[in-house]
Amino acid sequence: MNHTTVPAYAAPAAKAPLERITVQRREPGEHDVLIEIKYAGICHSDIHTVRGEWGDDGHFPLVPGHEIAGVVTAVGSGVTRHRVGDRVGVGCFVDSCRECDNCKAGLQQYCTGELGMVGTYGRPGRDGEVTQGGYSTHVVVDENYALRIPVSLPLDEAAPLLCAGITLYSPLARWQAGPGRKVAIVGMGGLGHMGVKIAHAMGAEVTVLSQSLRKQEDGLRLGADHFHATSDPATFEKLAGSFDLIVNTVSADIDLDAYLGLLATDGTLVQVGAPERPLAVSPFALIAQRKSLAGSMIGGIPETQEMLDFCGEHGIGADIEVIRAEQVNEAYERVLAGDVRYRFVIDAATI
To answer: How many whole angstroms separate alpha carbon 156 and alpha carbon 248?
Structure first.
């Protein structure tokens, strides 16, 4: 297999600072597209992975990045979905088995085949080579795993939609956020701020549940109708039985029973944040009002395209801070300190 060498930023080992290296990209095959990356978002998952917090799988050096926005610069001979010059995005996975029931249903993120969902970085692909992510100047992916980015969306603001956007859009769409529905978003970070924007655009009544009122002004500006501090015990008394849907975006330990108490009858709490430790829940918190506790992970290719089109139609991009590639380690520390409003995006031209 022929390869091209491109620059990237990678963690040489678990917990090591990222540094500039070169990586091999395959030459585009018959159904591949070569994408010149313009911007790559920094997701908390990137930090968990390079620091070995979700299990050190040994695939180092590792180039993170699964919020990729760029332009197609070459296509394989059999490509029909994209053309040179198209604005495209790549999200959290770049392949799947394509044959299981979930893949056939467009739920590639839940692939049950032998190949499984092939993550955009740190996972062996069907060629046996470990994938390397978006903190790079170029990437080659199968045309079926690249998404069209509407021209109405700036590429830098669109990059985080490929993970943060779809992570919130999918549960909001599945649990029918819309007019007449009361939705709460727990956390106002990279994920949460997208949830506020999307739920508002869907027509729901949106409440932000954040530790403090520090981001209240931002929350209301982004489309929240209400904003409450979860550090105040009175919040849980005042809002008891209020919500049809709660989406929890935080990766910290929370009192699930307390949040379940905020749901109305038949309400659902959807977990999208991924804490390191298990969370406890009392069966009585679910039984009393026929409540549900659910999980959701990103979205399949069709739904991700649907999300991008929705965001294009409503002018929804992420609130971002664009950084140079050499600032990535500093950006990681700032993400951990909660010092970003609301997503760092790497300008790939600086790699």
So the answer is: 25
